[in-house]
Each structure stands twice: as C-alpha cells, then as structure tokens.
Specification:
The chain has 282 residues and is of the alpha/beta class. It contains twelve helices and seven strands.
C-alpha cells in the first residue's frame, strides 16, 4: 500500500512548486515519503510557452499542464501524485467563476469527501494546504483551503464512508503562508540590480494578504533546496516561460525569496512551541 508522511493539497499544477516546492524537496531529500494532491487541471491558465500555438493548445491545456505537473513532481522527489480533476475556476471576477463545474462551485462535502478518500489511502502524518485567504485571493486557492480542512475532518470520521479504507486521523494540518517582513528588502535588491520586479511589483497588495512572521507556528529553512525548486518550476512551460523572473532571477535572489517556509498550524491547536520541522515531536 502506497503511503506518505507529508501530503500537500494544492489548487493547480505549478502550485506544488510556488507554495510548497521547497518543503517537498526538503523532506524527499531526507527519505521522507511526500505526496501531492492537485485539485484542478488548470484549464484556465495562461499559455506562455513560445513553442505552442495558443489557439491549438487551449483545448488540451489540462492535459498539457498535467504532464508538466508530473514532470515537476519527479524533480521534487514526490512519490505519490493524485489529481481530483476539477475544472479550474479562473481568476477572481472572471466569467469562468460562474460555471457550475468550476472548482469554486463544487459542493464542499463532495470535494472534501474526495480529499478524505485520498487521505485515507495515503495515510499522511501531516497535511499542508492553502491559507484561508488563498494566498492572493484566487477562488481555487480559497476553495483548496476549505476542502482540505473538510477532508481532514471527514477522513477521521468513522461515520463517513468512502471506498474500503478505514478512517485516518492526521497528526497535524498546516497552511503555507507568506509573511509581511522582507518584501521591501527583496524589492530593493531587485531594483538595485535592475531586475524584473516579478511579484514584488505588488508588495503593498501582497502584504495585505500576508501574516506577521512571529505568528507562524512552524518555520523551516529550505534554502538548500531552492535549486531543485527552480528546476521544478522550469517544468511548467505554459505558465513559466524561459524569460520568466522565476527562472531569470540570479541564484542569490531566488535564495532570498524561497529560503524560508512559513506555516500556520490549523489542527490541532498549537501549544505555543514554534516548530523548526513539521514532524518535530511526532
């Protein structure tokens, strides 16, 4: 039976990198089995791969992005990948948000039940998901948080029936977080070297969706794994073209951006001890 110790539940292909790539590589390199559960196939994403004709590629973008996801997971060392296959909801305020099949419109217990089935199958000690703000407010990121929390609840509930797997209680549920500190310092580094500002063009807006670093319940140094993270990002050709800031920023900038992984502990209630490892004490 395939089992993992860490399971990251992510909204789209490429989110396994941008939100959790460092922490997945950190554990995989230590021989800790890690898994990824991706909620949608990313059909509403961009097509930035210069080798593709956007009109020709659009109808099969879900298949293309799934292949990119699988390649990225191989780089990160992910041992188990599962896909729920829901339809990408698109950016907030777009027409695609209104489609009944959009992930953000799926009944919570339906999607949460499918997450629970994966949790019961893979039996993780720790689950990582989106934060309640969806990192930057994307409907699928917000929904990912909701279905992960519900999935953890249902997986442990003996009255909830799904397949033949028995109930499973995870030891800890975390949300991955951005913090307010450091953004202006990195932005100044980018300006000084006249580099593409990337996300840091929107430092003030992102700060409003971030948490203070002192409020994090777990802080893990993943700096040694940033080169692996970058290689994994490079597999997502449709979303991250060769000239993307994520691939062209010099190593010392990428190191500063992705060095530290911050988490809020959602379940059980934190005991006041800040963890330096998600498995600390287990």
């Amino acid at each position: 039976m395939a089992e993992v110790t860490i399971l990251a539940v992510r909204p789209h292909p490429d989110d396994e990198c941008t939100g959790t790539g460092g922490i997945l590589a950190y554990y995989a390199s230590r021989g800790v089995p890690v898994g990824v559960l991706t909620c949608t196939r990313g059909e509403e994403g961009e097509i930035l791969d210069p080798s593709l004709d956007p009109d020709e590629a659009r109808p099969r973008l879900g298949d293309i992005r799934e292949a990119e996801l699988r390649a990225s997971c191989r780089v990160l060392g992910v041992s188990e990948l599962r896909l729920l296959g829901y339809h990408d909801s698109g950016m907030e305020g777009t027409e695609s948000n209104q489609r009944p099949e959009a992930f953000c419109n799926v009944p919570l217990d339906e999607a949460g039940g499918r997450v629970a089935a994966v949790i019961r199958e893979l039996r993780p000690r720790v689950v990582i998901t989106e934060n309640e703000r969806g990192t930057y407010g994307h409907p699928d990121h917000v929904m990912c948080h909701k279905v992960s929390v519900r999935g953890v609840e249902l997986a442990a509930d003996a009255s909830f029936r799904t397949g033949v797997q028995p109930p499973w209680s995870v030891d800890r549920l975390f949300s991955n977080e951005r913090v307010t500190e450091g953004g202006e310092r990195i932005a100044n580094m980018l300006r000084a070297e006249q580099l593409d500002m990337g996300w840091y063009e929107y430092t003030d807006e992102l700060a409003g969706l971030a948490m203070k670093s002192e409020d994090a319940n777990a802080v893990v140094d993943v700096g040694d794994y940033v080169p692996i993270l970058r290689e994994a990002l490079a597999q997502h050709h449709t979303q991250i073209p060769p000239d993307s800031f994520l691939l062209t920023w010099p190593p010392h900038i990428l190191q500063e951006v992705f060095r530290t992984a911050y988490f809020r502990q959602l379940r059980p209630k934190p005991n006041g001890v800040r963890l330096a490892d998600l498995l600390q004490g287990l």
